Amino acid sequence: MTANPVLELRNAAKVYGGGETLVTALHGATLAVAPGELVAVRGASGSGKSTLLHLAGGLDAPSSGDVLVEGQSLGSQSRKDLARLRRRSIGYVFQDLNLVPSLTAAENIALPRELDGASAGEARTEALAALEEIGLRGVADRFPDEMSGGQQQRVAIARALIGARRLVLADEPTGALDSETGEGVMRLLRARCDAGAACLLVTHEPRHSAWADRVVFLSDGAIVDETTADAPTVLDLGALT
Amino acid sequence: MSIKHGLLALLAPGPKYGYQLKAEFEATTGSAWPLNIGQVYSTLQRLEKGGQIEADGVPDDDGRVIYALTPAGREELAGWFHTPIAQESRPRDELAIKLAMAVNTPGVDAREVVQAQRRQAMSSLQSLTRAKAAVPDEDLARVMVVDSLIFAAEAEVSWLDRCEARLRNARTEKTPEKEAVQ
Fold first, then answer.
1. Which positions in chain A touch B129 (Cβ < 8 Å)?
2. Is the Cα torsion angle A146, A152, A155, A156 positive or negative in sign?
3. Is residue A212 within 8 angstroms of chain B, CB to CB?
4. What was the ipTM of the complex prediction?
5. Shortest Cα distance from B86 to chain A (angstroms)?
6. Residue at a domain's end among B88, B115, B147
7. Pairing with B182, which of A112, A142, B80, B113 sits 20 to 30 Å away (CA)?
8. A210–B154: do the CB atoms touch at under 8 Å?
């Protein structure tokens, strides 16, 4: 890895409670995600996947260790600076989408840019370009309940990627989608990574985690395994590529 | 078997010679199952003996024999396409046998066996996914072969996840007893 990582977890741990009720959700996790890299996190329910993602996004603070985004330690930021860093540098895609129901697709995508201080006109132009890129220019003025699940998910991803966000955090982004639509979402995430974004993806679906450059496996709050795409297959890859 | 029926299917549009059949078989299946030319000729001989194909005319100037389907061959091929392949007719699963043995062999950590296998399966799944991204959507035959390998690798990973969870639960339940033995 030559480029500086966009995201770095340094021995980041999270415990809840104390004494007899102490629960260690995440043991010291060390993980770096470089620009252009897609890293998937797998593991059973309760293995610490969501905790890891929340720490990475500054939505929760580690009990010990450190989390850095673009070289800046999240722990040393004021609440205001952290909010700005989250808004400008990090895009979130959650399973439950969190699209604002009273805003259209374009308005949903433009929202974080407007919060960043862009004018409404600028933000809308950028949102329309983002929709064009994901092949959804036609749904710009539709409300979330007027779109299919796959369209809503792609709008959520476009919103996560608008502006100069270099880190995308995705929690089960293919959750309720059928196989083909889920694959479309993964192709989109992969393309954005290939264009330079860093992405940390939590998914329980092996087929979707396989789009990643690295797959890390969590068990009982610890990273126990990591794989890369270097296994020989029965396919003659040379003949295919 | 798949080679025999594969060759019959390739002969359905018209007569072909051995090397041509080998090349077309591999192109259609994305080279997932390469054939050696000896396999092709021995299969063609068996098919000829069984009356499912016949030599089409005399060998050409290079000595190549062109083969064509007979009506019996067409019937065999139609039967193959219309009959689903039974799950239990597939060969014994070495991995399932290995894990069953690992659980019951003293001194073997079955979880380690599972994790090593899952690492391999996940890495294959990543390689296959990468390969698939390079296949154009309109190349239906290849996309479907790669999908088949992807779904099989995914099923293996999911099954190994389940095995690991079972082993973890079993270990939690058995720990006091195990310590007593040690």
1. 207, 210-211, 229
2. positive
3. yes
4. 0.79
5. 23
6. B88
7. B113
8. yes
